[in-house]
Write the C-alpha coordinates for this entry.
Amino acid sequence: MGADGTGAAGAEAGDPARPETAGADPAGDGDRRWARTAPRKGSGRQRHDAKITVYVSGDELLAMEQARLTLRGAHDLVVDRGRIVREAVAVLLADFEENAEESVLVQRLRDTDEGTAGGAGDAGGTTP
Protein backbone atom coordinates (compact mmCIF):
# COMPACT_ATOMS: atom_id res chain seq x y z
CA MET A 1 0.00 0.00 0.00
CA GLY A 2 1.31 3.44 -0.85
CA ALA A 3 2.04 6.10 1.74
CA ASP A 4 -1.28 7.76 0.89
CA GLY A 5 -3.18 4.57 1.81
CA THR A 6 -4.59 4.03 -1.68
CA GLY A 7 -2.66 0.91 -2.63
CA ALA A 8 -0.04 0.46 -5.30
CA ALA A 9 -0.99 0.96 -8.92
CA GLY A 10 0.08 -1.86 -11.20
CA ALA A 11 0.85 -4.20 -8.33
CA GLU A 12 -1.28 -7.04 -9.66
CA ALA A 13 0.50 -10.33 -10.27
CA GLY A 14 1.46 -10.78 -13.89
CA ASP A 15 1.57 -7.04 -14.65
CA PRO A 16 4.07 -6.74 -17.55
CA ALA A 17 5.15 -3.31 -16.29
CA ARG A 18 6.53 -4.92 -13.12
CA PRO A 19 10.07 -6.27 -13.56
CA GLU A 20 9.53 -9.30 -11.35
CA THR A 21 6.75 -10.56 -13.60
CA ALA A 22 7.92 -9.31 -16.98
CA GLY A 23 9.20 -12.09 -19.19
CA ALA A 24 7.67 -14.84 -17.07
CA ASP A 25 7.40 -18.20 -18.79
CA PRO A 26 4.34 -17.86 -21.07
CA ALA A 27 3.87 -21.63 -21.31
CA GLY A 28 3.12 -21.75 -17.61
CA ASP A 29 4.92 -25.07 -17.27
CA GLY A 30 6.32 -24.18 -13.86
CA ASP A 31 9.71 -22.90 -15.06
CA ARG A 32 9.92 -19.67 -13.08
CA ARG A 33 13.08 -18.24 -14.66
CA TRP A 34 12.64 -14.76 -16.06
CA ALA A 35 14.39 -13.32 -19.07
CA ARG A 36 16.38 -10.25 -18.12
CA THR A 37 17.99 -7.81 -20.50
CA ALA A 38 20.09 -5.96 -17.93
CA PRO A 39 21.99 -7.11 -14.84
CA ARG A 40 19.88 -7.10 -11.70
CA LYS A 41 20.48 -4.06 -9.49
CA GLY A 42 19.07 -2.98 -6.18
CA SER A 43 16.34 -0.37 -6.52
CA GLY A 44 18.33 2.17 -4.57
CA ARG A 45 16.86 5.19 -2.88
CA GLN A 46 13.35 5.70 -4.22
CA ARG A 47 9.78 5.41 -3.07
CA HIS A 48 8.83 1.74 -2.93
CA ASP A 49 5.28 0.46 -3.33
CA ALA A 50 5.69 -2.86 -1.53
CA LYS A 51 6.86 -3.75 1.96
CA ILE A 52 7.83 -6.94 3.73
CA THR A 53 8.78 -7.58 7.33
CA VAL A 54 11.86 -9.65 7.96
CA TYR A 55 12.89 -10.87 11.38
CA VAL A 56 16.61 -11.09 12.05
CA SER A 57 18.62 -12.12 15.08
CA GLY A 58 20.40 -9.57 17.21
CA ASP A 59 23.72 -10.77 15.81
CA GLU A 60 22.48 -10.33 12.22
CA LEU A 61 21.24 -6.83 12.99
CA LEU A 62 24.54 -5.93 14.64
CA ALA A 63 26.48 -7.28 11.62
CA MET A 64 24.31 -5.22 9.29
CA GLU A 65 24.90 -2.08 11.35
CA GLN A 66 28.63 -2.75 11.38
CA ALA A 67 28.56 -3.18 7.58
CA ARG A 68 26.60 0.08 7.25
CA LEU A 69 29.14 1.93 9.39
CA THR A 70 32.06 0.39 7.47
CA LEU A 71 30.47 1.43 4.17
CA ARG A 72 30.20 4.95 5.55
CA GLY A 73 33.63 5.16 7.18
CA ALA A 74 35.85 3.21 4.82
CA HIS A 75 34.01 3.62 1.51
CA ASP A 76 32.26 7.00 1.89
CA LEU A 77 28.86 5.41 1.13
CA VAL A 78 26.01 6.68 3.28
CA VAL A 79 23.27 4.07 3.04
CA ASP A 80 20.53 2.79 5.30
CA ARG A 81 19.79 -0.82 6.23
CA GLY A 82 16.99 -1.03 3.68
CA ARG A 83 19.39 -0.16 0.88
CA ILE A 84 21.85 -2.80 2.08
CA VAL A 85 19.08 -5.41 2.15
CA ARG A 86 17.81 -4.46 -1.34
CA GLU A 87 21.34 -4.70 -2.77
CA ALA A 88 21.93 -8.03 -1.04
CA VAL A 89 18.66 -9.39 -2.42
CA ALA A 90 19.54 -8.15 -5.93
CA VAL A 91 22.96 -9.82 -5.81
CA LEU A 92 21.50 -13.08 -4.51
CA LEU A 93 18.71 -13.18 -7.09
CA ALA A 94 21.08 -12.33 -9.96
CA ASP A 95 23.30 -15.23 -8.90
CA PHE A 96 20.24 -17.49 -8.68
CA GLU A 97 19.06 -16.47 -12.16
CA GLU A 98 22.50 -17.06 -13.64
CA ASN A 99 23.55 -20.21 -11.78
CA ALA A 100 20.26 -21.84 -10.70
CA GLU A 101 21.20 -25.17 -9.11
CA GLU A 102 24.76 -24.06 -8.30
CA SER A 103 23.72 -20.65 -6.96
CA VAL A 104 24.65 -19.48 -3.49
CA LEU A 105 20.95 -19.32 -2.60
CA VAL A 106 20.25 -22.95 -3.50
CA GLN A 107 23.41 -24.17 -1.77
CA ARG A 108 22.76 -22.21 1.45
CA LEU A 109 19.10 -23.23 1.59
CA ARG A 110 20.05 -26.86 1.07
CA ASP A 111 22.62 -26.61 3.86
CA THR A 112 20.04 -24.97 6.14
CA ASP A 113 17.31 -27.48 5.31
CA GLU A 114 19.46 -30.54 5.95
CA GLY A 115 18.20 -32.14 9.11
CA THR A 116 14.77 -30.45 9.07
CA ALA A 117 11.75 -32.67 8.65
CA GLY A 118 10.46 -32.53 5.08
CA GLY A 119 12.82 -29.69 4.14
CA ALA A 120 10.25 -27.13 5.27
CA GLY A 121 12.92 -24.63 6.22
CA ASP A 122 11.58 -21.72 8.23
CA ALA A 123 7.94 -22.15 7.13
CA GLY A 124 7.88 -19.12 4.87
CA GLY A 125 9.86 -16.79 7.06
CA THR A 126 7.16 -16.22 9.62
CA THR A 127 9.11 -17.48 12.61
CA PRO A 128 10.66 -14.58 14.56
Notes: The two ends are 23 Å apart (CA to CA).
